[in-house]
């Protein structure tokens, strides 16, 4: 089930989006919302999830002004939601303004680093047009004139001033950190505000002052960082927030949407599946029937809706069906977010290259081209797709025989294994190794004349041929 496979829980200070709550979380909300659209099978999403959690914990005090949310697009019940928001790659992080309309599709953030994301949120809030999220305090720098009038026009009992240069985010971060303290206002003052800088005798930027109604002030010595070091370590902000907050509490004051499909590519895919996919008879009937319909299409493009309708209709025909539901067997992970779909993609294409080789296909690159198209157009992990495309560009053209196609895919898969070994997406029970291991296929390994490891390609090829052969597929797997 999706809830089990998802990467977040409510205790992460992240709202779990669903069809039920999306209309109130992303639409017409008095808070702005940062939402992550991810797929629980996507390695980059898994690697990014600790950062997203850290960000959520980091800015949980900002909640009345900006909230955080996430949705697992791999879960069947969220598919339409992600489609409505035109999500084509994972993870996608978007900023939704307060009081967004149902048509709003959010502003994408490309950054993945916690500090950069926090700063992007501040930039988005600062440039937030009307209607402004009511709980968000002003973030722009203040002036001497404004400060002079402050206590005449505000009920807050304490005014904290953060002196800093224009590029620094500390002032705005502290402002948001303390937004829930009713009796304290934080404003940033730029180092170019000469009058105030001279008046308070400020020499360090950033530095932190409490300013009183009678014009007197106290510098808050931020422990360990007085004077602050030239670069601002993130903890300076925490110390500053805590110092101000603590100070005030002592005084008693006290969070796939492709609409059209390219006919020619779809025809190529479909032809290839109908020829090589070693499916059960019911599934093969469906694939063949779909294939003959597709080969008769003459328009350049086919709408996704028309294609889907055709698949659904074909599945109604007696003796033609797709399996119902999704149950992972060979690609089952030790936890619900491991392996599954990407493992299925690799396995499928290894099987297809082997089948093409066994049955004597005419074009050595037929299966690889199909995989390239599939990954390019439909594989939600966009970084994976980019890496794969780079590998394709580096050498797929040289594949001139069917056995070479089998070996080419095997060696590129090993390149990926090598690159992502040890990543958070790695299932501890299925470590990323240079595959097959010497235990699985002793004869595949050899030692070269200078003592290094080498592959014995003459043995690897038949090993792959038998490992991915149709006879090893269990057509009627029952638990
Ligand atoms: P998988 O790597 O999915 O392998 C499935 C099965 O194939 C293994 O259990 C094993 O039996 C067999 N196998 C393993 N190696 C080979 C091989 N060399 N040749 C033949 N069979 C083999 N994840 C990222 O984090 N970053 C990426 O950039 C990335 N790029 C990807 C690109 C593509 C095209 C695909 C399909 C997936 C990509 N992934 C990426 C996902 C990642 O490769 C794994 O699919 C995922 O982490 C699940 O791993 P797994 O343990 O189930 O084994």
Automatic annotation (TrEMBL):
Q: What is one GO biological process annotated to this record? A: protein folding
* Residue ranges occupied by any Thioredoxin domain in the UniProt entry: 1-127
The entry's keywords: Disulfide bond, FAD, Flavoprotein, Glycoprotein, Membrane, Oxidoreductase, Secreted, Signal, Transmembrane, Transmembrane helix
**EC annotation from Swiss-Prot or TrEMBL:** 1.8.3.2
GO terms under cellular component: extracellular space; Golgi membrane
The protein's GO terms of the molecular function aspect are: flavin-dependent sulfhydryl oxidase activity; protein disulfide isomerase activity
Question: Localized where?
Answer: Secreted
Statement: the UniProt record of this protein carries the keyword Transmembrane helix = yes
Per its record, the protein catalyses:
2 R'C(R)SH + O2 = R'C(R)S-S(R)CR' + H2O2
What are the required cofactors?
FAD
Instruction: Give residue ranges for domain ERV/ALR sulfhydryl oxidase.
Output: 334-435
The protein's predominant localisation is secreted
Q: What does this protein do?
A: Catalyzes the oxidation of sulfhydryl groups in peptide and protein thiols to disulfides with the reduction of oxygen to hydrogen peroxide. Plays a role in disulfide bond formation in a variety of extracellular proteins. In fibroblasts, required for normal incorporation of laminin into the extracellular matrix, and thereby for normal cell-cell adhesion and cell migration.
Instruction: Give the UniProt family note.
Output: Belongs to the quiescin-sulfhydryl oxidase (QSOX) family.
Could you identify this protein by its name? Sulfhydryl oxidase
Q: What species was this sequence derived from?
A: Fundulus heteroclitus (Killifish)
- Which part of the complete protein is shown? 38 to 516 of 786
